[in-house]
Specification:
The chain has one domain: dinb family like domain (Four Helix Bundle (Hemerythrin (Met), subunit A)). Helices cover 58% and strands 4% of the residues. It contains 8 helices and 2 strands, in the order H-H-H-H-E-E-H-H-H-H. Helix 1 runs antiparallel to helix 4 and helix 2 runs parallel beside helix 4. The chain is globular and about 45 Å long.
Length: 191
């Protein structure tokens, strides 16, 4: 039952990010994002790469080290939307395979239950959907259920994210902030 709920959340997060990718205008791929080092294209490429890792890690049980630089660089080619759609579908299929969420995956920080990896992917998709929304001027409102889930998922290790250098330090949420604002502030965003 828990795996079924997780897979539904993952599907909803994929759908959310897919909606945003399909909204990117032809002239927006070079625009800046809240992730100051990334353009819209860089942000989408990051999420494509994240999805490309899922099948070999979950289905094949390989390690990141054994894949080496297989997914380094631009993975979007001439059709970023198609690259996203293909990688998202492959990631979903890998997580949905019978027994997939019961496996152990070998991540950069060590072994992890595949279900935990999937939960991390949900959080990543949700926060980056907001980043992409802000960058392209789309609706920034995120589904409350996904945001609440992402807050529960990331809260235990949020303090370590800034130490990793991959996230800005948390920002203090304003008094009376809603759960989405608190979530974004927790991950160093300035909504």
């Amino acid at each position: 039952m828990a795996h079924t709920r997780l897979l539904k959340r993952h599907a909803a997060a994929i759908e959310l990010f897919t909606d945003r990718v399909h909204t990117v205008g032809a002239g927006q791929w070079g625009d800046p994002t809240p992730c100051t080092e990334w353009t819209v294209r860089d942000l989408v490429n990051h999420l494509v790469v994240e999805q490309l890792w899922v099948p070999p890690l979950v289905k094949d049980g390989v390690t990141i080290e054994s894949l080496g630089s297989a997914f380094d660089g631009d993975q979007l080619g001439t059709d970023p939307v198609a690259a996203w759609d293909t990688s998202a579908r492959a990631a979903q299929d890998a997580f949905r395979a019978p027994g997939a969420l019961d496996r152990t995956v070998h991540l950069s920080f060590g072994e992890s239950p595949a279900a935990h990896y999937c939960a991390q992917m949900v959080t990543d998709l949700v926060v980056h959907a907001w980043d992409l929304s802000r960058a392209i001027g789309a609706d920034e409102r995120l589904p409350d259920d996904l945001v609440r889930y992402a807050v529960r998922e990331v809260s235990p290790y949020a303090a370590d994210l800034a130490k990793s250098g991959l996230f800005d330090p948390p920002v203090e949420a304003p008094p009376g902030a809603d759960v989405q604002t608190k979530f974004l502030c927790l991950l160093g965003r300035r909504p």
